[in-house]
Amino acid sequence: MRAHRAGPVALAMLAMLAVLSAGCGGGAVPAAQEAALPAASPSGTPASPLAGKTVVLDPGHNGGNASHPEEINRQVDIITGRKACNTTGTETDDGYPEHAFTWDVAGRLKPILERMGAKVVLTRPDDKGVGPCVTERAAIGNEARADAVLSIHGDGAVPSGHGFHVIMPGLLPGHNDAVVKPSARLGRDVRDAFREGTGMPYATYTAKNGLDTRTDLGGLNLSKRPAVFIECGNMRNPGDAAKMSDGAFRERMAAALADGIKRFLG
Hints:
By secondary structure, the chain is an alpha/beta fold.
């Protein structure tokens, strides 16, 4: 049989294939192109969704605060007034302190965020120190140029109240104009993820639909970066206290908070 002659389009395609085969070692992705491709998980989604992002975690209070009243009661300027440098925090009826709770949740949350590629900065190195003041905590987030700041707390409200809520900064003209809107979005993302991940209801005793806006918290007033507080539950309520005292449930809280931050930064 007489062989058919290849047309010009077919010849061009054959030439292109030959060049690719010679330059890529039989079809391998060139190094420069390979480096540009995002790493992927088995599901096909990026393995480091927070790469290049900085998250500041602020575990409320500190283990040494109660023994240094003169230091933590020192008054500092929070723009809308003067307040104590820091406080001792609350605790459950069984004596599980808020400072230990917040430190534990932050310790569980940090590696989750780091596995997502984020750089994580803590406002205190352990649960044995004093402070730092709310002004210093805000400064840490500002100096780190944080993409998101999350201050972790447990509430000490009336025992009949239960549930969690997220606190966002109110507008202080000339001070935080640029971060009010992104902070509100961060607050909604954290609220939604926390409720979905833990099953905890919105607070029954304060806020509205799990969200509150305040201008009396130095950590929010002084932040130049998107920032929110979360009261993860009411430590004076028996039901909330049982959850917050359980390590497995704190792990769920940490995973939910990581999801909220990822939604905001992703």
